[in-house]
Structure formats: C-alpha cells, structure tokens
Amino acid sequence: MLNVTRNHKDNVFCLLYRDKKNLLSLYNAINGTEYEKEEELEVVTLEEAICMKIRNDAAFVIDSGLNLYEQQASVNPNMPLRDLYYVVEELKKIAPPGRLHRSTKVKIPTPKFVVFYNGIAKQPERQVHRLSELFFREEKEPDLELIVTVININPGYNGELLEKCESLKGYTIFVNKVRDKKASGLKTEEAVRQAVDECIFEGILEDFFRENREEIVEMGIYEFNQEVYDEVLREDGEAIGLEKGIEIGRNEGMKIGRNEGMKIGRSQGIEIGTLTAIENVMSALKLTIEQAMDVLKIPEAEQVKYLGKVKGKEELY
What we know:
By secondary structure, this protein is α/β, with parallel strands linked by helices. It has twelve helices and six strands. Strands 1-2-3-4-6-5 form a six-stranded mixed β-sheet, covered by helices on one side.
C-alpha cells in the first residue's frame, strides 16, 4: 500500500493544472479567449509552506487579471470567505504593504474567482456565492463583496465548456470512472488504478496519466478514500441539522425562555443533523438505512428512533 498521508490539497486537479498549457486552455475555455503563449501566464498559486497553512488549487495572472481556481467535491457556500483569505495573500505578494503609503494609486490585477464542482449532490449548472451572504446582517449594498462563480462539471452539465477544454473533460471522465468502479464494489486503490489505465488505453489525457501514473494513484487513494468521504457527509449533515435546530431553539425560546429554547434547539438540531447524514450516505453510497447507520457508527440503542423517520424515504435512494 502506498503512503497516503498527504496534504489534503494535493489532488489530481492540482497536479493537472500545474501544467501551464492546461491552465491556459482552461482559462481560454471559460473566457472565450485564444491565448497561445504560455509565457503570458504567470502562476502565483499559494504554497502552504510560506503562507501560514493557506494554500489554493490554482492561481495565475494573465491579461491584467488575477484568477483563482478551486476544485470542490462538496457543496461549500463558504468559498467567498476562503477566497478572501487567498486573495489577500496573493495581493500581499503583488502589492507589498510597504507600497500602500504612496500618494499615487497602486494598481492591482482584477480578481476573478471560479470553483469547479464535481460532487455527488445535485447542484445547478452554474451559481454564484457572495461574501455578503455570510454576513450576520443583510446589507443591500455591502461595503465589502466577493463573488465566486461555481461551475458544475458533472456529466450532463456545461457540456460546451468541457468540449472546449480537453484537460477539464479528461479530468471529469477520470473522476467518474473512479466513482463508477467504487460503486461496483472495487476498493479505492484498484478503482483508481483501473481508471488511470482505461484513460491511457482510451487516449484520455494519455501523456498526463502515463507520466504521473503512480503519483495520481497515490493522490487518488486519498482523494476517494471512503472513510474521509463518509466523515464529510456526516459533518455536513450535522452542521445542517444544528443550524436548523438553533432556528427551532430561537422560535421555542420566544415562548418558553431563551436558555430552555436553545437546549431544545440543540437537541433537535443533533437529531436533524443525524437524519440528514443518514440520508446523505444512503443517497451517495446506495445503502439501506441500516447500512448507512453502521457506516456512521450510530449506536444500536439510537438506531430505532431513526428507522421510522427515514423508512418512508428509503425508496428514494
């Protein structure tokens, strides 16, 4: 077994877009441009070692624009805040703080933020997340805003974009090959190896997969690791449930007092979160209720109360 204790950002997407040719092709496909000279693109991707554990997938400057690209396999409405952290670090390099005391304007490239989504949760073809959506108080005209465009690259979405960008299309095919093989019962390592070999045989990013075969397999084992995947599903479910529970607590608190209401809300939030996690795992892994609860390690004593609440929905999964 290969050593899979890796930085969580070291994934196949990052490896693929370390190549300037692929990165330029992706930029052209998104923006409808036709840049051909790789030297016109300056890679400025943050490296964890020098940026206090802040690292992004791909960042580069071209045509007076600073582009920050991320790949996400989970729904993440917090990307505007993450990208705010990233872009601040980038701008510190481009326009060092010492220059900001000048009497003349310090020019900076125009930032643009894109997320490529390929998770299993159903999402629209394109959507935007705004930093202002995370503010405690809604502002019609916020003083600070950051907009992230999320592009769904799953099969059936954004086909025109994928056809324009061979590397993105190939990456998408690879990911779905791995998922299909895992769904058929193969272990992660074997699913990744077979997906890589099939891509090479079928001429899908053949050079990339040949040159980086072992590194891709190692990355893929981590990237598609089932235990990590299940834990993400569980955490997402608990977070959703707790958020709903707190809202319930607020409403109850208006009737019976804040402290008691928040206790009720937290208790109901945990239950809602667990139900959401069960449903997520059932949907994602095509499991029965009982199997999903075993995956989530829900104590047997607690399983009975969830059986009836989820049972009516089982046919959906």
